[in-house]
Design brief:
Helix content: 40-55%
Structural class: alpha/beta
Radius of gyration: 20 Å
Strand content: 15-25%
Number of strands: 14
Number of helices: 14
Length: about 350
């Protein structure tokens, strides 16, 4: 199988690099300066066992590949807000022997949240969900790092919306030879919703820095809103205890020379000044479900708004003092209670 990594940033680059390092055929897809750096100098991946450079075929879109192969596996690793454009670009691409990518090829959504795979299922016939537990960082164009050890990450895999098949087992086997654990789960959404609850703190970190007792207490309140919403919607999610039992100390972060880890995915979006952030599909997912099921979500709505404002106005990550964020949170809750 050939792996086409659509969005070879922190997560996609780490997956692509590790697959290439274990001998698998990999194509990287990226844009702008990152594409140019990957094309000209290769992918430089720093991990606990060293820094490796992989000179891999690199394109900025499907035109650079032409007709796809029947054994291609598409790994969608763009941020959720960029999913629709990626699906429109790759879905109609012809596959050797007839048909299109959307009709014939497997698409693995290695993304935070749950919306990407729902969007994908509108276009692609064979969609797979991936619960991504892979701490990684985009350092600069052409350079990414992943500080997990002894494994680079844990990637639960499953068909969307449910089920398993032989494709999953083949991909899981390749990943498990490439420094990942890749459990095949018929209920992968249960793991993705659990990860969604963890990701609700991304906006706190992006806006104010998620450090200290006060910000952790705020995250607990934000998560409690999320759990109440999922419970009201009848959506199952793996418990904290179950996640800890599965992960153990398999993906412990270790310091990497020359590759500091600044923050999570939302923090990195602000630090790079991309102008967009995934809050609509993290905190915004909870806000959406809350409105559908009559559960107030003032804290998640506030964080969604603040994260989008920071991204739109190109504010520096962590620049809102925690006391100010707490004041706004209390005001948001009080407004709902008084309404």
């Amino acid at each position: 199988m050939r792996y086409i990594i659509i969005g070879a940033g922190a997560v996609g680059g780490s997956i692509g690099g590790r697959l290439a390092g274990s001998g698998h055929e990999v194509v990287l897809v990226a844009r702008g300066a990152h594409h140019a750096a990957l094309r000209d100098g290769g992918l430089r991946l720093t991990v606990p066992d060293g820094t490796f450079t992989y000179r891999l075929p690199t394109v900025d879109g499907p035109a650079g590949l032409g007709e796809l192969r029947p054994d291609d596996v598409l790994v969608l690793a763009v941020k959720t807000q960029d999913t629709a454009a990626a699906l429109q670009a790759w879905g109609p691409v012809p596959v050797a022997g007839g048909g299109t990518a959307a009709g014939r090829l497997p698409l693995f959504c290695a993304q935070n949240g749950v919306e990407g795979q729902r969007l994908a299922l509108r276009v692609f016939r064979h969609v797979y969900g991936v619960c991504v537990w892979l701490p990684s960082t985009f350092i600069e164009p052409g350079v990414v790092s992943a500080g997990g050890a002894p494994l680079t990450g844990i990637l639960h895999l499953g068909r969307h919306p449910h089920g398993t098949d032989e494709t999953l087992r083949l991909v899981a086997a390749d990943l498990e030879k490439s420094h990942f654990e890749a459990p095949v789960a018929s209920d992968v959404a249960r793991w993705q919703y659990a990860k969604l609850l963890s990701n609700l703190g991304n906006a706190i970190e992006a806006v104010s820095g998620r450090v200290g007792e006060a910000s952790e207490e705020l995250y607990a309140r934000v998560r409690a809103e999320g759990e109440a919403v999922l419970d009201a919607a009848g959506i199952a999610y793996a418990s904290v205890e179950e996640q800890k039992a599965v992960r153990g100390h398999k993906v412990d972060l270790v310091p990497l020379d020359g590759a500091p880890r600044g923050g999570g995915s939302s923090w990195q979006s602000l630090s790079r000044g991309t102008g967009s952030i995934e809050a609509d599909h993290l905190n915004g997912e909870i806000a959406l479900l809350g409105r559908l099921h009559g559960v107030p979500t003032p804290l998640n709505e506030l964080l969604q708004h603040l994260a989008n404002t920071f991204a739109r106005e190109h504010r520096a990550p962590g620049s809102m003092p925690v006391p100010e964020l707490l004041r706004l949170a209390d005001e948001a809750v009080a407004f709902v209670q008084e309404s």
